[in-house]
Every structure is written in C-alpha cells, then in structure tokens.
User: Fold this.
Amino acid sequence: MRFSVYPLFFTGRQRLDTHVRVWYAGCRHIDDKQEDEQQMADDTPQQAGTPEEDIPILTPVEQLPITFFDHAVLAVRRDNGSIYLAIRDLNDATGLQHSSQMRRIRTHPVLREGLARFRVETAGGSQAQDFLELERVPTWLLMINTARTTDAVRERLAYFQRYIIREVYAAFSRLTGLPEASHQIEDLDELRRMDTALTELADRQQSLETSQDKARQAWRDLTDQIRSIVGRVAELEQQVGRSITRRQRGYIYQMVQAWAEAKVAQEPRLSRAAATQACWATIKRRYQVARYEDISAKQYDDCVRFVRDAYRKLTGSDLDLPEQSELPLESPDA
Assistant:
C-alpha cells in the first residue's frame, strides 16, 4: 500500500493524522499477511538447507541433561570443547514445532554453521539427534515469534529478547562510537561511522579466529585436569548426599523421555512437548524442586520407582530401560 508523500505537506494536521493512520494500518495488514504466509511455509513439509545425510554424525565426549525454561534439555560437548544443545528438547521447552524450527535453522546461513548431529544415549537406545551450538542459541531465541510459544514461556522469552536487543545495540554503539540511544544522535551524518566500524570488525574477526585456534589447543591440554577435578567434586557431593550424580541425571532423563512417549501413544492429541513438560512438572512437584537435577541422592531410588510405576499404570507393561553405566568423558577414538 503506497501513498504520495508530497500532498501531506500541504494538508492540515487532521488530514495528516488520517493519512498516517491509514498507512500504519496498511503496514500492519502486510505484516500479518507475511506472518501467515511464513507459518504456512513452515507447516509445509519441504527439504531446505543442509540435508541430514550431509551432516556427519559425531560422538560427544560427554553429555548431560540441564534445565532450560523449566524443561530438561540434553547438552553435549564435542571433541574441540564446544557445547551444543538438543534442538528437539529446546523446541519441547518452548512449545514450538520441531520440523519448522529445523527448516528455519537449516535455511539461515549463520545458524546453520552451528548445526551438528551427535549420536547420544536415549530411552530408545543410541540415536543420532540434531544439536545447535550454544553460542548460536540466543540468536535462534531472538528469532522466535513469542506468540507461538507456550504461555509458561512467552513472558520470559519476550523479556530475554528485549534484553538481547538492548545488549546487542549497546555493543554496536561501542563498536561504532555512537550514543547508546538513537535519540541522542544529533547529526544523521554520524551514521557514517557504521560502515567504517563494520569493516574494521571483519578484519579483527579474521585475526581473532587465528588466535582462537591456538586457544583451543591450550584448552585441550587442560581438559584432562579439569575433568579429573570435576569428577572428584561430584564424588564428594554424592558422599554427602547433596544431589544425584551425572549418571543418575542421565538415567532419569531417559526414563522421562520414555514416559512422555507413552503418554503421546495413549493420547494422540497430546503433543510431545506437552507430554514431556507434564512429566517433568509431576516429578518436580513430587520432590519439591525447581530443577530435577536438585533431587537429592536419597530420593533417587524413589524417583526411579515412581517413574516406573507411572509408566506401568499408563501402558500396563514394565519400562524396559536398563540403567546405564557412567557415560565416558573421552571419545572412543581419542
């Protein structure tokens, strides 16, 4: 929808306000239409970006479920030290459709750089899953339409997005030498600084990547010592009954995944995300904890029995999921 700019300068204030309101309504109409078209495209099965078969399957050196938006999300570390989060778990936590978010990530050049597939232990055995590099998760969260998330997540996610926008612009203003608020810019000609600053940033990034390669090598040299310390601390915490071990956290995570899948099988209208959230909420209420990893070591056996009983009541059969031994911290190929 377009309007001529020139007649606005020769009309009264009332007519100007009318033009502005009509123009704004037209823009809102276009935005809503584009949003609907994008959602239709997201809901339509299609191949986009990097096909799954072209992504190598990696073996994590360690994996551990962590809490994110009150939901358990599997985190893994690859051999270079980088951390990744399970995309399906992230979508379950936010209530988003997994297939559409995978298309969004694959078709975004920068996000796609952080896409990786790892073979991890799940309730259904060893499986390959998609993960997103931790550094790129905030960018992905910023792109989410909060209107399509669950009520429990929407407000916190919107606050996070506003925070990220403020912090990114603050960094941008420091980079360009511009004021941290645009209304403080007195002369529009000052915006010329942006192009100069972005060029300098690209040059610095090239040098930074070179130095990061050296830093990664130094990190590898210290990895064994750090993991040894972490292991000893975990043993001490277990001895005083402070919290469940990493192995126990992983086993509960796998059990809850199987419990949620059984719920979906019994109630087809229930989404996987809703079923998983309901299972975790039940456990946290039972043990009065904000995060499931805060369950005490003394409560672990009861928690296992509770999930097994819930699964048996739901399906009529026992949960055939043997408890795994401690996950290796080193890659088998190392």
Observations:
- Residues 264 and 276 are 9 Å apart (CA to CA).
